[in-house]
Amino acid sequence: MAHSYTPGLKVLHEAKVHKDRILPLKGEVVVKLNDAVKPDDIVARTHLPGTVQMVNVGNLLNIDPSDVEAVMCKPIGSSYTKGEMIAETKGFFGLFKSNVLAPIDCTCEAVSAITGQVVLRDAPIPVEVDAYIRGTVSKVYPEEGVVIEADAVFIQGIFGIGGESRGELAVVTETREDELTEDMIKPEHAGKVLVGGSFLSLKAYQKALRMKVAGIVVGGFNYFDLEEILGYTLGVAITGSEDLVTSLVLTEGYGEIRMGSRTFDLLKQHHGKFTSINGATQIRAGVIRPEIVIPLDNADLKGSTNVSQVNEGIQAGSLVRVIRAPYFGRIGTVISLPPELQKMESETMVRVAEINIDDEVMTIPRANLEMVETD
Protein backbone atom coordinates (compact mmCIF):
# COMPACT_ATOMS: atom_id res chain seq x y z
CA MET A 1 0.00 0.00 0.00
CA ALA A 2 1.30 3.48 -0.90
CA HIS A 3 2.18 5.86 1.91
CA SER A 4 3.09 9.54 2.08
CA TYR A 5 4.89 10.81 5.18
CA THR A 6 3.81 14.34 6.02
CA PRO A 7 3.12 16.54 9.06
CA GLY A 8 -0.31 16.22 10.61
CA LEU A 9 -2.73 18.21 12.71
CA LYS A 10 -4.16 16.47 15.76
CA VAL A 11 -7.81 16.35 16.78
CA LEU A 12 -7.76 13.98 19.76
CA HIS A 13 -10.59 13.18 22.19
CA GLU A 14 -8.07 11.94 24.77
CA ALA A 15 -4.33 12.40 24.78
CA LYS A 16 -1.41 12.45 27.18
CA VAL A 17 -0.39 16.08 26.81
CA HIS A 18 3.09 17.12 27.95
CA LYS A 19 3.95 20.79 28.21
CA ASP A 20 7.48 22.07 28.86
CA ARG A 21 7.45 25.10 31.16
CA ILE A 22 11.02 26.36 30.95
CA LEU A 23 12.64 29.57 32.20
CA PRO A 24 14.60 31.77 29.74
CA LEU A 25 17.63 31.46 32.03
CA LYS A 26 18.40 29.57 35.22
CA GLY A 27 16.35 30.39 38.28
CA GLU A 28 14.21 28.61 40.87
CA VAL A 29 11.70 25.80 40.40
CA VAL A 30 8.96 26.22 43.02
CA VAL A 31 7.03 22.95 42.57
CA LYS A 32 8.00 19.33 43.17
CA LEU A 33 7.65 16.13 41.19
CA ASN A 34 4.07 14.77 41.14
CA ASP A 35 2.59 18.05 42.44
CA ALA A 36 -0.91 18.80 41.12
CA VAL A 37 -1.00 22.25 39.53
CA LYS A 38 -3.62 24.61 38.15
CA PRO A 39 -3.11 26.77 35.04
CA ASP A 40 -2.32 29.96 36.98
CA ASP A 41 0.05 28.30 39.47
CA ILE A 42 3.63 29.58 39.23
CA VAL A 43 6.01 26.66 38.64
CA ALA A 44 9.31 28.50 38.20
CA ARG A 45 10.70 32.02 38.52
CA THR A 46 13.86 33.95 37.78
CA HIS A 47 15.13 37.48 37.17
CA LEU A 48 16.33 38.86 33.85
CA PRO A 49 19.25 41.29 34.08
CA GLY A 50 18.10 44.91 33.88
CA THR A 51 19.12 47.26 31.07
CA VAL A 52 22.51 48.97 31.25
CA GLN A 53 22.99 52.73 31.23
CA MET A 54 26.38 54.38 30.85
CA VAL A 55 27.10 57.67 32.65
CA ASN A 56 30.32 59.53 31.81
CA VAL A 57 31.07 60.81 35.31
CA GLY A 58 34.55 61.99 34.27
CA ASN A 59 33.12 64.43 31.72
CA LEU A 60 30.25 65.55 33.92
CA LEU A 61 32.55 66.39 36.81
CA ASN A 62 35.43 67.56 34.56
CA ILE A 63 37.95 65.23 36.19
CA ASP A 64 40.45 62.68 34.91
CA PRO A 65 39.00 59.18 34.27
CA SER A 66 41.52 57.73 36.71
CA ASP A 67 40.00 59.88 39.50
CA VAL A 68 36.38 58.79 38.98
CA GLU A 69 36.43 55.81 41.34
CA ALA A 70 37.75 58.04 44.14
CA VAL A 71 34.76 60.41 43.90
CA MET A 72 32.10 57.68 43.86
CA CYS A 73 29.82 57.87 46.92
CA LYS A 74 29.58 54.08 47.31
CA PRO A 75 31.78 51.14 46.33
CA ILE A 76 31.22 49.18 43.13
CA GLY A 77 28.28 46.79 43.54
CA SER A 78 26.22 49.22 45.62
CA SER A 79 22.62 50.15 44.83
CA TYR A 80 21.24 53.63 44.21
CA THR A 81 17.73 55.02 44.02
CA LYS A 82 16.74 57.43 41.24
CA GLY A 83 17.97 60.93 42.13
CA GLU A 84 20.48 59.72 44.72
CA MET A 85 24.00 61.14 44.48
CA ILE A 86 26.42 58.65 42.94
CA ALA A 87 29.55 60.84 42.71
CA GLU A 88 30.74 64.18 44.14
CA THR A 89 33.92 66.21 43.87
CA LYS A 90 35.61 67.68 46.97
CA GLY A 91 35.50 71.25 45.60
CA PHE A 92 37.68 74.07 46.93
CA PHE A 93 37.85 74.17 50.73
CA GLY A 94 34.57 72.22 50.80
CA LEU A 95 32.84 74.73 48.51
CA PHE A 96 31.80 74.69 44.83
CA LYS A 97 31.22 70.94 44.84
CA SER A 98 29.89 69.17 41.72
CA ASN A 99 27.89 65.95 41.75
CA VAL A 100 26.15 63.39 39.56
CA LEU A 101 22.75 61.92 40.40
CA ALA A 102 21.50 58.43 39.56
CA PRO A 103 19.17 58.64 36.50
CA ILE A 104 17.38 55.40 37.48
CA ASP A 105 17.06 52.93 40.32
CA CYS A 106 20.19 50.94 39.69
CA THR A 107 23.32 49.09 40.79
CA CYS A 108 26.82 50.30 39.99
CA GLU A 109 28.48 47.47 38.11
CA ALA A 110 31.78 48.99 37.00
CA VAL A 111 33.87 52.15 36.82
CA SER A 112 36.32 52.66 33.95
CA ALA A 113 39.61 54.39 34.75
CA ILE A 114 40.21 54.70 30.99
CA THR A 115 37.02 56.40 29.80
CA GLY A 116 35.55 57.75 33.03
CA GLN A 117 32.33 55.86 32.33
CA VAL A 118 30.25 54.37 35.15
CA VAL A 119 28.13 51.32 34.29
CA LEU A 120 24.70 51.42 35.93
CA ARG A 121 22.30 48.48 35.63
CA ASP A 122 18.57 48.80 36.05
CA ALA A 123 16.76 46.62 38.60
CA PRO A 124 16.38 42.95 37.59
CA ILE A 125 13.14 42.08 35.76
CA PRO A 126 11.16 39.31 37.51
CA VAL A 127 10.00 36.49 35.24
CA GLU A 128 7.48 33.86 36.31
CA VAL A 129 6.36 30.80 34.37
CA ASP A 130 2.93 29.36 35.14
CA ALA A 131 1.63 25.84 34.57
CA TYR A 132 -0.57 26.85 31.56
CA ILE A 133 -2.74 23.72 31.93
CA ARG A 134 -4.20 21.78 34.84
CA GLY A 135 -2.18 18.67 35.43
CA THR A 136 0.68 17.01 37.30
CA VAL A 137 4.39 17.79 37.39
CA SER A 138 5.87 14.78 35.59
CA LYS A 139 9.47 15.96 35.36
CA VAL A 140 11.63 18.59 37.03
CA TYR A 141 14.66 20.26 35.45
CA PRO A 142 16.51 21.79 38.43
CA GLU A 143 16.86 25.58 38.11
CA GLU A 144 15.29 25.44 34.63
CA GLY A 145 11.65 24.36 34.69
CA VAL A 146 9.24 21.44 34.63
CA VAL A 147 7.07 19.28 32.41
CA ILE A 148 3.33 19.31 33.08
CA GLU A 149 1.37 16.20 32.13
CA ALA A 150 -2.40 16.02 31.69
CA ASP A 151 -5.06 13.77 30.19
CA ALA A 152 -6.80 16.19 27.87
CA VAL A 153 -8.62 16.92 24.66
CA PHE A 154 -5.93 18.14 22.27
CA ILE A 155 -6.72 20.03 19.06
CA GLN A 156 -4.27 21.76 16.75
CA GLY A 157 -5.21 24.66 14.50
CA ILE A 158 -3.67 25.68 11.21
CA PHE A 159 -2.82 29.28 12.16
CA GLY A 160 -3.11 31.60 15.14
CA ILE A 161 -2.05 34.89 16.70
CA GLY A 162 -1.59 35.86 20.33
CA GLY A 163 0.15 33.82 22.99
CA GLU A 164 -1.14 31.64 25.79
CA SER A 165 -4.58 32.28 27.22
CA ARG A 166 -7.18 30.37 29.16
CA GLY A 167 -10.80 30.52 30.26
CA GLU A 168 -14.15 28.76 30.21
CA LEU A 169 -15.05 27.31 26.80
CA ALA A 170 -18.22 28.78 25.28
CA VAL A 171 -19.60 27.55 21.94
CA VAL A 172 -21.62 30.52 20.62
CA THR A 173 -22.72 29.34 17.16
CA GLU A 174 -25.32 26.69 16.49
CA THR A 175 -23.46 24.92 13.71
CA ARG A 176 -19.99 24.76 12.19
CA GLU A 177 -21.26 26.67 9.13
CA ASP A 178 -22.33 29.75 11.13
CA GLU A 179 -20.28 32.93 11.29
CA LEU A 180 -19.34 34.25 14.72
CA THR A 181 -20.84 37.75 14.47
CA GLU A 182 -20.46 40.91 16.56
CA ASP A 183 -23.85 40.57 18.22
CA MET A 184 -22.91 37.11 19.55
CA ILE A 185 -20.06 38.58 21.62
CA LYS A 186 -21.44 39.89 24.91
CA PRO A 187 -19.97 41.42 28.09
CA GLU A 188 -20.46 38.15 29.97
CA HIS A 189 -17.96 36.53 27.58
CA ALA A 190 -15.07 38.44 29.18
CA GLY A 191 -12.34 35.98 30.14
CA LYS A 192 -13.87 33.11 28.15
CA VAL A 193 -12.69 31.17 25.10
CA LEU A 194 -15.35 31.47 22.37
CA VAL A 195 -15.93 28.92 19.62
CA GLY A 196 -17.48 29.96 16.32
CA GLY A 197 -18.18 28.20 13.05
CA SER A 198 -16.98 29.23 9.61
CA PHE A 199 -15.75 32.81 9.95
CA LEU A 200 -14.86 35.74 12.19
CA SER A 201 -14.91 39.28 10.79
CA LEU A 202 -12.45 42.02 11.72
CA LYS A 203 -15.21 44.01 13.48
CA ALA A 204 -16.22 40.96 15.51
CA TYR A 205 -12.62 40.37 16.58
CA GLN A 206 -12.18 44.02 17.52
CA LYS A 207 -15.31 43.77 19.66
CA ALA A 208 -13.87 40.66 21.32
CA LEU A 209 -10.76 42.68 22.17
CA ARG A 210 -12.90 45.41 23.73
CA MET A 211 -14.91 42.85 25.69
CA LYS A 212 -11.61 41.27 26.90
CA VAL A 213 -12.50 37.82 25.56
CA ALA A 214 -9.66 35.42 26.42
CA GLY A 215 -9.60 33.68 23.06
CA ILE A 216 -11.52 32.72 19.94
CA VAL A 217 -11.47 29.45 18.00
CA VAL A 218 -13.04 29.66 14.55
CA GLY A 219 -12.77 28.10 11.10
CA GLY A 220 -11.51 31.05 9.06
CA PHE A 221 -10.43 34.67 9.08
CA ASN A 222 -9.54 37.23 6.41
CA TYR A 223 -5.76 37.21 5.88
CA PHE A 224 -5.68 40.90 4.91
CA ASP A 225 -7.35 41.87 8.20
CA LEU A 226 -4.29 40.62 10.10
CA GLU A 227 -2.38 43.77 9.10
CA GLU A 228 -5.11 45.91 10.70
CA ILE A 229 -4.77 43.93 13.94
CA LEU A 230 -0.99 43.54 14.07
CA GLY A 231 0.00 46.89 12.57
CA TYR A 232 2.30 45.24 10.04
CA THR A 233 2.15 42.78 7.16
CA LEU A 234 2.64 39.21 8.30
CA GLY A 235 5.37 37.68 6.16
CA VAL A 236 6.95 34.50 7.48
CA ALA A 237 4.33 33.01 9.79
CA ILE A 238 5.98 33.21 13.19
CA THR A 239 3.46 34.44 15.73
CA GLY A 240 2.73 34.22 19.43
CA SER A 241 4.52 37.28 20.82
CA GLU A 242 1.75 39.74 19.93
CA ASP A 243 0.41 41.84 22.79
CA LEU A 244 -3.25 40.89 22.30
CA VAL A 245 -5.93 40.38 24.93
CA THR A 246 -7.73 37.86 22.71
CA SER A 247 -5.76 34.97 21.22
CA LEU A 248 -7.11 33.71 17.90
CA VAL A 249 -6.89 30.13 16.61
CA LEU A 250 -8.00 29.23 13.08
CA THR A 251 -8.77 25.56 12.62
CA GLU A 252 -9.17 25.59 8.83
CA GLY A 253 -7.50 28.57 7.14
CA TYR A 254 -8.08 31.97 5.54
CA GLY A 255 -11.48 32.98 4.26
CA GLU A 256 -14.92 31.67 5.14
CA ILE A 257 -14.33 27.96 5.77
CA ARG A 258 -16.65 25.91 7.93
CA MET A 259 -14.95 24.30 10.87
CA GLY A 260 -14.23 20.58 10.56
CA SER A 261 -17.09 18.50 11.93
CA ARG A 262 -14.82 16.48 14.25
CA THR A 263 -13.31 19.64 15.70
CA PHE A 264 -16.62 21.48 16.16
CA ASP A 265 -18.42 18.48 17.66
CA LEU A 266 -15.54 17.84 20.06
CA LEU A 267 -15.47 21.46 21.24
CA LYS A 268 -19.26 21.53 21.59
CA GLN A 269 -19.11 18.37 23.68
CA HIS A 270 -16.87 20.18 26.19
CA HIS A 271 -18.79 23.47 26.31
CA GLY A 272 -18.39 25.10 29.72
CA LYS A 273 -15.07 23.45 30.61
CA PHE A 274 -11.89 25.30 31.48
CA THR A 275 -9.66 25.51 28.42
CA SER A 276 -6.11 26.63 27.63
CA ILE A 277 -5.23 27.89 24.15
CA ASN A 278 -2.08 29.17 22.47
CA GLY A 279 -2.08 31.02 19.15
CA ALA A 280 1.69 30.71 18.62
CA THR A 281 2.44 29.51 15.08
CA GLN A 282 5.64 28.69 13.23
CA ILE A 283 5.34 27.30 9.73
CA ARG A 284 8.97 26.73 8.82
CA ALA A 285 11.57 24.45 10.43
CA GLY A 286 10.53 23.39 13.91
CA VAL A 287 6.83 23.65 13.10
CA ILE A 288 4.66 24.98 15.94
CA ARG A 289 0.89 24.83 15.61
CA PRO A 290 -1.71 26.78 17.58
CA GLU A 291 -3.51 24.54 20.05
CA ILE A 292 -6.54 24.02 22.24
CA VAL A 293 -6.08 21.93 25.41
CA ILE A 294 -9.05 20.89 27.56
CA PRO A 295 -7.94 18.93 30.66
CA LEU A 296 -10.23 16.00 31.44
CA ASP A 297 -11.52 14.85 34.82
CA ASN A 298 -11.28 11.18 35.74
CA ALA A 299 -15.00 10.82 35.06
CA ASP A 300 -14.44 12.02 31.46
CA LEU A 301 -11.77 9.43 30.64
CA LYS A 302 -12.85 6.50 28.54
CA GLY A 303 -9.56 4.62 28.64
CA SER A 304 -8.55 5.48 25.08
CA THR A 305 -5.85 8.00 26.01
CA ASN A 306 -3.44 8.44 23.14
CA VAL A 307 0.07 8.17 24.59
CA SER A 308 2.11 7.83 21.44
CA GLN A 309 0.71 6.91 18.08
CA VAL A 310 2.94 5.55 15.36
CA ASN A 311 2.52 7.89 12.41
CA GLU A 312 1.94 5.63 9.43
CA GLY A 313 1.62 8.61 7.13
CA ILE A 314 -1.03 9.39 4.54
CA GLN A 315 -2.61 6.43 2.84
CA ALA A 316 -5.91 5.57 1.16
CA GLY A 317 -8.71 6.51 3.56
CA SER A 318 -6.66 9.10 5.49
CA LEU A 319 -8.29 12.40 6.42
CA VAL A 320 -6.14 15.25 5.11
CA ARG A 321 -6.13 19.04 4.93
CA VAL A 322 -4.84 21.11 2.00
CA ILE A 323 -2.23 23.62 3.20
CA ARG A 324 -1.64 25.67 0.03
CA ALA A 325 -3.73 27.63 -2.47
CA PRO A 326 -6.07 27.27 -4.29
CA TYR A 327 -7.75 24.80 -1.89
CA PHE A 328 -6.10 26.02 1.32
CA GLY A 329 -7.85 24.78 4.45
CA ARG A 330 -10.20 22.30 2.77
CA ILE A 331 -10.47 18.80 4.23
CA GLY A 332 -10.99 15.59 2.33
CA THR A 333 -10.34 11.86 2.24
CA VAL A 334 -7.53 10.23 0.27
CA ILE A 335 -8.79 7.95 -2.49
CA SER A 336 -5.42 6.89 -3.84
CA LEU A 337 -1.73 7.77 -4.03
CA PRO A 338 -0.64 7.20 -7.64
CA PRO A 339 3.04 6.11 -7.69
CA GLU A 340 3.94 7.86 -10.95
CA LEU A 341 4.95 11.52 -11.18
CA GLN A 342 2.41 13.91 -12.69
CA LYS A 343 2.91 17.29 -14.35
CA MET A 344 1.32 20.28 -12.62
CA GLU A 345 0.34 23.65 -14.11
CA SER A 346 3.75 24.95 -13.05
CA GLU A 347 5.31 22.33 -15.38
CA THR A 348 6.91 20.58 -12.40
CA MET A 349 6.70 16.82 -12.03
CA VAL A 350 5.48 15.81 -8.57
CA ARG A 351 3.86 12.97 -6.68
CA VAL A 352 0.17 13.57 -6.14
CA ALA A 353 -2.80 12.28 -4.20
CA GLU A 354 -6.37 11.90 -5.36
CA ILE A 355 -8.60 13.50 -2.73
CA ASN A 356 -12.37 13.40 -2.29
CA ILE A 357 -13.39 16.88 -1.10
CA ASP A 358 -17.14 17.47 -0.79
CA ASP A 359 -17.87 14.65 -3.26
CA GLU A 360 -15.47 16.08 -5.83
CA VAL A 361 -12.27 14.22 -6.72
CA MET A 362 -9.22 16.49 -6.92
CA THR A 363 -5.60 15.75 -7.79
CA ILE A 364 -3.32 17.61 -5.37
CA PRO A 365 0.47 17.47 -4.83
CA ARG A 366 1.30 15.43 -1.74
CA ALA A 367 3.55 18.26 -0.48
CA ASN A 368 0.41 20.43 -0.24
CA LEU A 369 -1.26 18.08 2.25
CA GLU A 370 -1.08 17.44 5.95
CA MET A 371 -2.74 14.64 7.81
CA VAL A 372 -5.53 15.29 10.28
CA GLU A 373 -4.81 12.90 13.16
CA THR A 374 -7.88 11.74 15.05
CA ASP A 375 -8.54 9.10 17.70
Task: Tag the structure with descriptive keywords.
four-stranded antiparallel sheet, OB fold (Dihydrolipoamide Acetyltransferase, E2P), SH3 type barrels, single chain, 375 residues, 5 helices
How do the helices and strands line up, and which of them pair or pack?
Blueprint (H helix, E strand, L loop, with lengths): L7 E15 L5 E2 L6 E2 L4 E7 L3 E5 H5 L6 H4 L7 E2 L4 E4 L10 E3 L4 E6 L5 E6 L2 E6 L4 E7 L3 E12 L2 E3 L2 E8 L7 E2 L12 E3 L3 E2 L1 H9 L4 E7 L3 H6 L7 E2 L7 E8 L6 H9 L4 E5 L2 E2 L8 E5 L23 E4 L8 E6 L5 E2 L5 E2 L1 E6 L2 E6 L3 E6 L1
Parallel strand pairs: 1-31, 15-17, 16-18, 17-19, 19-21
Antiparallel strand pairs: 1-13, 2-4, 3-12, 4-11, 5-10, 6-9, 7-8, 9-10, 12-13, 13-24, 14-21, 15-22, 20-23, 22-24, 25-26, 25-31, 26-29, 27-28, 29-30
Outline the structure in words.
The protein is mostly beta strands and 375 residues long. The protein folds into three domains: 161 residues, Phosphohistidine domain (Glucose Oxidase, domain 1, 3-Layer(bba) Sandwich), CATH 3.50.30.10; 71 residues, OB fold (Dihydrolipoamide Acetyltransferase, E2P); 56 residues, SH3 type barrels, CATH 2.30.30. It contains five helices and 31 strands. The strands form seven sheets. The protein has a 16-stranded mixed β-sheet that branches. Strands 5-10-9-6 form a four-stranded antiparallel β-sheet. The chain has a three-stranded antiparallel β-sheet with strand order 2-4-11, with no helix packed on it.
